[in-house]
Specification:
five-stranded parallel β-sheet; three-stranded antiparallel β-sheet; binds 2'-deoxycytidine-5'-monophosphate
């Protein structure tokens, strides 16, 4: 199933706080391509399991549950079996649960099918940890975004302050370091740069500059040709 689909994929991987989500959404909007936020899928599995009382360390039940979920990932909202979970899956307890279910090969294998099923014309922007190394090894373009731990903690701090929550920069620094460790040292599909990925260090770059840099590589690979063929009318998703 991973071989041969015609639609091109741009894989954007990197650690938390590297700006992947923001950049992937902007590039998807710019190209009129579908966006896959793969982290949201792990969050959905944790959310659904907690709602059903399924233990987060029971791979068989989690995989069976995941296969039965109707997941809709639109441009602005995520629904599971018709329920809007956009906000609920961002809660801290879900972040912790998502990190736990992400260590289970059975869950990763089930979600791999869901992710590959999202590869539709005119193209897919896939944001995650293992998009270029595992799920879309044949992606037409692989980008690895990174930034210093200090800068990623500062960005997260700013976001949280804007939302009115006060967490110390020091605590955020420690929690980002802990997440890096678990993402990179996990036995299955650890976060790492694909050998054929283009690395962009966003520490001192603005969002606009990163988007421009990614689009430069998109153009260099001739990936915008499909868009011209499809025309503006193909833009959209939901
Ligand atoms: O990017 P995020 O914080 O929404 O990701 C939630 C969790 O899922 C996080 O623990 C990393 C994990 N994840 C993963 O293992 N593989 C992916 N492709 C995306 C996320």
């Amino acid at each position: 199933m991973s071989d041969g689909p015609a639609a091109p994929v741009i894989a954007i991987d990197g650690p938390s706080g590297s700006g992947k989500g923001t950049i992937a959404a902007l590039v998807a909007a710019r190209l009129g391509w579908r966006l896959l936020d793969s982290g949201a899928l792990y969050r959905i599995v944790a959310w659904a399991a907690l709602a059903r009382g399924i233990p987060l360390d029971d791979p068989q039940r989690l995989a069976a549950m995941t296969r039965a979920l109707a997941i809709e990932q639109g441009a602005t909202a995520v629904r599971v079996d018709g329920v809007d979970v956009t906000t609920a899956i961002r809660e801290e307890r879900i972040s912790v649960g998502a990190a736990a279910v992400a260590t289970l090969p059975e869950v990763r294998q089930t979600l791999r099918g869901v992710q590959q099923g999202m590869r539709v014309a005119p193209g897919l922007i896939a944001d995650g940890r293992d998009m270029g190394t595992e799920v879309f090894r044949d992606a037409e373009l692989k980008i690895y975004l990174d930034a210093s731990v200090e800068e990623r903690a500062r960005r997260r701090h700013k976001q949280l302050m804007e939302k009115g929550s006060s967490v110390s920069l020091r605590d955020l620094f420690a929690s980002i370091q802990a997440r890096d460790r678990s993402d990179r040292n996990r036995a299955v599909s650890p976060l790492r740069r694909a050998p054929d990925a283009i690395s962009i260090d966003t520490t001192e770059m603005s969002v606009e500059a990163v988007v421009a840099e990614v689009l430069k590589h998109v153009e260099a690979r001739g990936l915008t040709a499909g868009r011209a063929r499809e025309g503006e009318g193909s833009r959209g998703g939901e």
